[in-house]
Amino acid sequence: MADVHGHEFKTRLKLEFPSNLKELQSLAQVLKEYSKTHSLYVLVLFSSAYVYKQTFSIPGSVFLNLLAGALFGVNMGFPLCCVLTAAGASFCYWLSFLVGKEVVEENSHQLVYYLLFLRMFPITPNMLINLISPLIGIPFNMFLVAVFIGLMPYIFLCIQTGEMLASLTSMDDIFSYETLLKMAAIACVALGPSFLMKNPNKVKSKQAINGKDS
């Protein structure tokens, strides 16, 4: 339990991750009041909770993104969550690299079952990517850039919506069909250049065949 005091505000709040919109709105209301006199404490508390969830692949980052919008607004909340997402995902990457890679190497003859476990484990796809990236040899610099840039549209949407957190009535207000289609379109645009780039392996193979023919 934690006591939160304002000049004319006194309540008792159980600090825990919100699991629904009502809990999120209550938490945001109390923390906004508390941040008026303890802004640094709220910032450190929020950042620690965010990185913790990302590091250990705990679902529910959407609630913290919305909370960031309510507490800090878009101008501060958006870059803050982008950095925290990259930091937490990086910790998850190295944790998986140090622990998971050894497990895979020791059980390579059972790899199919290990991968099935990762697929069935109840975490979101982004969390799954964080876990398996070091296991399948994705370089860390490529992983970090993809996390920081690739999640920007999603984070911005949540932060922007979080500024109007008090007026939300359902999580469906955030992810409407129109919004999901826009995000899908952005993803397709990002994928576009890959269709224009030549596969270096195919180019080398073609060159080798031409060399033999000559």
Automatic annotation (TrEMBL):
Cellular location(s): Membrane
Record has Transmembrane helix as a keyword: yes
Residues in VTT domain copies: 58-163
Record's signal peptide: none
Membrane topology, from the record: Multi-pass membrane protein
Keywords attached to this entry: Membrane, Signal, Transmembrane, Transmembrane helix
Main location: membrane
Segments traversing the membrane: 40-64, 76-99, 111-132, 138-159, 180-197
GO cellular component terms, semicolon-separated: membrane
Pfam families assigned to the protein according to its UniProt record, in alphabetical order: VTT_dom
Keyword hit for Flavoprotein: no
Family, similarity comment: Belongs to the TMEM41 family.
Protein name per the record: VTT domain-containing protein
Organism this protein belongs to: Timema douglasi (Walking stick)
